Amino acid sequence: MTGILAFIVVFGVLVTVHELGHLIFAKRAGIMCPEFAIGMGPKIFSYKYNDTLYTVRLLPVGGYVRMASEEMEINPLNAGMRVQLKTNESNEITHIILDDKHNFTQIEEVEVIDSDITKDMFIRASRLHDGEEVTYPLSHEAYFVENSQLERIAPRTARFESKSVWHRFMTLAAGPLMNFVLAFALFTLLFYMQGKPSEEPVVGLVAEDTPAEEAGLRAGDRLETINGEPVESWGNMTSIIQEEGGQPLDITVSNDGGERQVELTPVVDVTELPDGTTSERLIIGIGQDMEHGVISPILWGAEQTYEMGTMIFRLVVQMFASIVDGTFSFDMLNGPVGIYKVTEQVAAQGLITLINFTAILSVNLGIMNLLPIPALDGGRILFVLYEGIFRKPLNKKVELNIQLVGVLFLLMVMILVTWNDIKTFFL
């Protein structure tokens, strides 16, 4: 149960922050956003505010911001359909009433002849009371009314494609950007909570029932040499221990200005990995000393976000290179099932480990969404950049076909990755 809750919370936070980035920048650019959704599937909660319907959906996988665009506008009006219209003093339509569940007065009942709510923004209709044919323009602020609910019709100036290249670029890039911001905030929080592991070979803690405890090592001890080899850093110390291959270690330790000799033999620590395999390494049972500060954790958070982003980017490049050289394996990827299993194991290790894992996932989500693959933010950014460079948008038919190929590609990859996860973890 803990694993399921942890997965829902972690995935929910990552998706919410990502989509919130899109929403904030879209609204700042003047783009109308009819819906902001967390999760997929049937709605379990909804709240409408400022022409945006905020929804939580049943399946905690993904989310989206539906931005107004020419392709997204759905016209419910058909020729021969009878509706009621509310107009303003300029005879512009302010409300198109689709049923009788309303309290509007001074309305005109008409039979629709033709309509366009994407380009020319009009309704041509025959008035029922005198049979006269009239063309009504839509007001800048016009609504469909059904079941006592108002659904605003996006004016052309409030649609995604009407905005400048810069505004569209920032709106699309804001999702991944917010994931990097979240990672920075989480890493910084961790450094404030527990400090930053020092690279100095100084003992921060000694685990119970380990060779280090039996040999008398204590917090504050500095490891100077191991079997006569100088210890330069924490990483250097761990490398020396692995290289000695489980042989007894003669360690020179300094503390409070004095030195002493300690003898101990490392033991093998076996760690079970999320895919069911195990990893072995030699340990002596000590943990790193931690550095603390007031301003430093902010700098450490930025540094950690950058380092983690660089590492994940290199891994992504290596993955694509493996496709070219034929060494690619779906074991390199994790789908929702794999992420759930990893989250379950991480959650069992405590809050600190879970926060760190969430920060790493956030960086990963930001980078993956910037990949130039159609249907991802990176692919859509490419279309915007094309328009910015060549001063004209890509042919709509070509763009839609490319997007379709991208969606089908991602669906195929997701199915294969999920099946691979199921085989790895459950079969």
From TrEMBL:
Localization: Cell membrane; Membrane
- Entry keywords, A to Z: Hydrolase, Membrane, Metal-binding, Metalloprotease, Protease, Transmembrane, Transmembrane helix, Zinc
Coiled coil regions in record: none
Q: Where is the PDZ domain?
A: 187-257
According to its UniProt record, this protein's enzyme class is: hydrolase
Its topology with respect to the membrane? Single-pass membrane protein; Multi-pass membrane protein
Q: Which cofactor does it need?
A: Zn(2+)
InterPro entries of this UniProt entry?
PDZ (IPR001478), PDZ_6 (IPR041489), PDZ_sf (IPR036034), Pept_M50_Zn (IPR004387), Peptidase_M50 (IPR008915)
Q: What is its main location?
A: membrane
CDD domains linked to this entry: cpPDZ_EcRseP-like, S2P-M50_PDZ_RseP-like
Give the record's GO CC terms: membrane
Gene Ontology molecular function: metal ion binding; metalloendopeptidase activity
From its record, what is one biological process in GO terms?
Answer: proteolysis
Entry's transmembrane regions: 169-192, 350-371, 400-419
Q: What is its EC number?
A: 3.4.24.-
Checking NCBIfam families in the record gives: RIP metalloprotease RseP (TIGR00054)
Write out the similarity annotation. Belongs to the peptidase M50B family.
Q: What is this protein called?
A: Zinc metalloprotease
Source species: Salinicoccus cyprini
Coding gene? rseP
